[in-house]
Amino acid sequence: MDECFMVGEKSNDTRINRTKQLLKWFIEQKSRWNTAHEFAIMILGEMAVWHMDFTTDTVLLSHAIDELYTMGKFPAFDSTSMFKEILIHSDLDDDDDSTIRAIMIYTRSDVLPSLPDREILDTLHLSGRFFYDCIYIHQKASEVAGPIKPQMVYDRLTEMEDQDMPGYYYELTKMLKKFCSAMGELLAHPRVRPLQDELSSKMQPPPSMKRAEEKILQQQQQLHQEQALQMHLHHHHHQQQQQQQQQQQHNNNNNNNSSRTPLPRLTNEQRFL
Questions:
Q1: How far apart are CA 64 and CA 59, in angstroms?
Q2: What is d(CA 145, CA 133) in angstroms, rounded to the nearest whole number?
Q3: Local confidence band at 66 (pLDDT 50, 70, 90 cut-offs)
Q4: What is the CA radius of gyration of the chain?
Q5: What is the mean pLDDT of residues 95-119?
Q6: H/E element holding 84?
Q7: Could you tell me if 197 and 27 are in contact, meaning their C-beta atoms sit under 8 angstroms apart?
Q8: Which residues have CB under 8 Å from 95's CB, separation 6+?
Q9: Among the listed residues 73, 75, 196, the one whose alpha carbon sits nearest the alpha carbon of residue 131
Q10: DSSP labels, 194-245
Q11: If 0-12 CB within 10 Å is exposed, 13-18 middle and 19+ buried, where does residue 42 land?
């Protein structure tokens, strides 16, 4: 997470700083829509650590996020510990219609997570209330020296997905814009959002804008037609001028030929005088 994101061709802030900013922005937006939203924070080392329990207090959450920092490299990650912590701290037996959602931000290019315990994972998925999304930030494959490549890590992360309620998965390297777009798309409630493959992040314009665009398009087409007509008339006029000039030149040549006085023909007798 010490690496930097890129904005265009320029190096931007470090990944850890940008991640903290986006996490706080995400919490702020969700809390504005519903003040009853609760958030918790986990830290991933070799094992998952429950960093802060569920709360609606955005100030405490902001302080907890500010405390996050890079902790060096880890040779492994036990994914079972992450789902176990979620299961321990989430009350799946509540009768309310609340959802439990985990957004995992994983940044290890060459560390393959372990396969999670199937029983724990099934308990979460079969509750019908658990949703799992993942953002994978990694180096390019050419920058990873070891035998474990980012594609292998990404494939392992997707094995944690529930096929009946598929989550949103993102993979990115250094492009900050893509990270921001992913966090924006994750604002949608998992029960009402479309499948990720069907997602269109471009909102349809309002009818008034569509009518304005159609009017502009018609005006442009009319302008192109008028320009084409003017070019055609100009070309036709130019051809007429050329034809007139050629006809005038032909007439002038005829006039010059007819105005010449022919030489008298000499008889045989005159030639020998």
A1: 9
A2: 28
A3: very high
A4: 38
A5: 91
A6: helix 79-89
A7: no
A8: none
A9: 196
A10: PPGGG---SPPPPHHHHHHHHHHHHHHHHHHHHHHHHHHHHHHHHHHHHHHH
A11: middle
Q: How far is Cα 115 from Cα 112, in angstroms, rounded to an integer?
A: 9
Task: Give the DSSP letter of residue 67.
Answer: T
Interval 201-216: pLDDT, tens:
555 555 665 676 677 7
Q: Looking at the predicted structure, is the pLDDT value of residue 12 above 60?
A: no
The span from the CA of 99 to the CA of 90, in Å, is: 10
Amino acid at 60: L
Burial of 233 (0-12, 13-18, 19+ CB in 10 A): exposed
Least-confidence region, from 64-73, 127-136, 202-211, 223-232: 202-211
In order of 2, 117, 221, 237, the CA distances from 227 in angstroms are: 58, 71, 10, 15
Q: How would DSSP label each residue in 129-194?
A: -EEEEEEEE---GGG--SS--HHHHHHHHHTTS-SSS---EEEESSBHHHHHHHHHHTTS-TTTSP
